[in-house]
Amino acid sequence: MTEVNTCLEKLQLKWDKLAGVTTDGCPNLTGKNVGLLKRMQDKVTEINPEQKLTFLHCIIHQEVLCKTVLKMNHVVDVVTKVVNFIRARALNHRQFVALLEESESGHGDVGYHCTVRWLSLGKVLKSVWDLRDQIQDFCAQKGHAIPEFSDEEWVADLGFAVDVTALMNELNVKLQCKGVFVHEMYCAVKAFMRKLQLLSNQVKERVLTHLPTLKAATKAADRLQKYSKMLNALHGEFLRRFQDFKNLESEMQLVSSPFSCSVENAPSDVQMELIDLQSDPLLAEHFRSVSLLEFYSSLKEESFPHMRRHAQRILVLFGSTYVCEQTFSVMKFNKSKHRSSITDEHLSAVLRIATSDIQPDFNALVKAQNRLDYSH
Questions:
Q1: Model-level pTM?
Q2: Separation CA 324–CA 36 (nearest Å)
Q3: Per-residue pLDDT for 213 more than 70?
Q4: 3-state secondary structure of 24
Q5: Using an 8 Å Cβ cutoff, are 61 and 25 in contact?
Q6: How far is CA 234 from CA 121, 171, 205, 228, 240, in A?
Q7: Are 47 and 12 in contact (CB under 8 A)?
Q8: Whole-number Å distance between alpha carbons of 146 and 111
Q9: Distance between CA 353 and CA 369 in Å, rounded?
Q10: DSSP symbol at 79
Q11: Taking 80 as the threshold, does the pLDDT of residue 181 lie above it?
């Protein structure tokens, strides 16, 4: 709390402007009595008793945690051991890469799986699936046979894991995009949950159109019932974990779809303004032709003060902590042992550019630099 307070003072940010806090969900942050969020709410309440903060658990972090309900450790552990056997020994690695070049498999190598990298598991599972014959032959030659690769049930589980992680990686990439508002992230999650329901029902009916790897791995009806239950369990885990976003859904809809939401269900302070908004055809046309930020910025303060304030509070919320993860990755890459002389000022500039979606005006920068050179 002391560090947060110091940071706000340094950046000259006011506590009464704080709308919400997004965390990774660890207990020392979210504790109800002495956690950071409780202390931040108490600090805000001292200034304005009516102000309530919105607390969210990073949507990407929750999505990654959801896959633990699939209980695919018996697949991931074997794949990890196989990859480590090939990659951790230099001779094995060189010989395996040479084998792939000779067989013209289309893959140049297999990658490591790292638990802190959100997309790595799906990519590793896919590469092992594509190269399973070459891997099995290579390991057998090395006296390191892999019996699981000959087990039909395990291979079917691997195929299922490849398809599910591919779908989750697709969702993950959507959630990592820059400039995505919290309601757009939650819409992507809701769409994914509907896909899980569809897949669960289709697998139960032995329809594997959207699970091509599983389709190639097995046709046993008894196994398909198991996978249908696993997809259903994954859907239930998504429902359980995203309650904080679910509680905010009506407020997000009011901002993202103001012309279609119900006036009766809207907060009382915006109901009259919402009626005026929905009754104006020019504003409806303007809403369809510009971005959300431009639309709410164009609303007159004297006519729609509560609507503007409500939009401000929702649009400034962070749906994830991805910008923090991205900053740490960029910092680790730039502040390496090979660049030990980089200054804090230059590092700060690099991080600012890497995590910003503002497009620089290069022509203006060049002209300014030229004028500076001429003056010297």
A1: 0.81
A2: 18
A3: yes
A4: coil
A5: yes
A6: 17, 14, 18, 10, 10
A7: no
A8: 18
A9: 19
A10: H
A11: yes
Contacts of 62 (CB under 8 A, 6+ apart): 25, 241, 242
Coil/strand/helix, residue 279: coil
Helices (H), 206-343: 212-217, 221-241, 243-247, 249-256, 271-278, 281-289, 292-298, 305-315, 322-334
Domain extent listing, the chain: 1-57, 66-242, 255-330
DSSP state of 22: E
Beta bridge partners of 56: 22
Distance CA 262, CA 257 (A): 10
Q: What is the pLDDT of residue 139?
A: 79
- 255: which 2 tokens? 């901002």
**Cβ neighbours of residue 69 under 8 Å, at least 6 residues apart?**
233, 234, 236, 237
Q: Which residue has the tokens 């999505």?
A: 63
Spatial separation of the C-alpha atoms in residues 307 and 277, rounded to whole Å: 9
d(CA 7, CA 13): 9
Query: Where are the extended beta strands (E) located within 122-179?
Result: none
CA distance 177 to 67: 21
Question: Can you tell me the distance from the alpha carbon of 160 to that of 199, in angstroms, rounded to the nearest whole number?
Answer: 12
